[in-house]
């Protein structure tokens, strides 16, 4: 099997850029995982699993609680509130949205990924700033 070293270098750059300890990419039956002190590649079957992207939970490090439906990022990358600089934002606080509406774009590996709302509701809070990095599972908006 031939390994494309540029993929490993790009993943390593993401570790530094987003201050991560580990990142993993899976394509077909090849999985590449890069962490601060090790790199591993496996050529084993990968089972696809989906995790819920809506969570109702208390924040763990403080006494504040988030009430409402939390919509989380399905991927790691850079979050953008609009389709291009200067364009109208997908959502704003107070706006009613429906399940499936695009709420943000997350750029990952030079690909713009539209993030759909997983529930109906009114935007209560936007939890990530435009152009800032977002982690997998990080809350991006809260709906009432």
What does the model show?
This protein has 144 residues and is mostly beta strands. It folds into 2 domains: 5-42, no CATH class; 54-143, RNA polymerase II/Efflux pump adaptor protein, barrel-sandwich hybrid domain (OB fold (Dihydrolipoamide Acetyltransferase, E2P)), CATH 2.40.50. Helix content is 9%, strand content 38%. It has 1 helix and 12 strands; from the N terminus they run αββββββββββββ. Strands 4-5-12-10-7 form a 5-stranded antiparallel beta sheet, with no helix packed on it. It has a 4-stranded antiparallel beta sheet with strand order 9-8-6-11, with no helix packed on it. Strands 1-2-3 form a 3-stranded antiparallel beta sheet, with helices on one face. The protein is elongated and about 50 Å long. Mean pLDDT is 78; it is low at 46-65.
Q: Name the helicity range.
A: under 10%
Mean pLDDT: 78
Query: What characterizes the major β-sheet?
Result: 5 strands, antiparallel
Q: Report the top-level CATH class of the largest domain.
A: Mainly Beta
CATH domain topology of the largest domain: OB fold (Dihydrolipoamide Acetyltransferase, E2P)
Structural class: mainly beta
- Our estimate of the beta-strand percent is 35-45%
Distance between the termini: 50 Å
Trace the largest sheet across and list its strands. 4-5-12-10-7
State the shape. Answer: elongated
Number of discrete helical segments: 1
CATH architecture of the largest domain: Beta Barrel
What is the radius of gyration? 17 Å
Uncertain segments are 46-65
Total domains? 2
CATH superfamily label of the largest domain: RNA polymerase II/Efflux pump adaptor protein, barrel-sandwich hybrid domain
């Amino acid at each position: 099997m031939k390994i494309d070293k540029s993929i490993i270098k790009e993943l390593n750059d993401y570790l530094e850029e987003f201050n991560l300890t580990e990142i993993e990419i899976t394509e077909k039956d090849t999985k590449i995982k890069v962490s601060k002190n090790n790199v591993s590649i496996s050529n084993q079957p990968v089972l696809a699993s989906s995790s819920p992207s809506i969570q109702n939970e208390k924040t763990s490090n403080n006494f504040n609680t988030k009430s409402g439906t939390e919509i989380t990022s399905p991927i790691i990358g850079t979050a953008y509130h609009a389709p291009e600089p200067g364009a109208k934002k997908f959502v704003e606080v107070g706006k009613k949205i429906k399940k499936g509406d695009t709420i943000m774009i997350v750029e990952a590996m030079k690909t713009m990924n539209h993030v759909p709302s997983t529930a109906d509701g009114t935007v209560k809070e936007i939890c990530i700033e435009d152009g800032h990095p977002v982690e997998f599972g990080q809350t991006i908006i809260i709906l009432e």
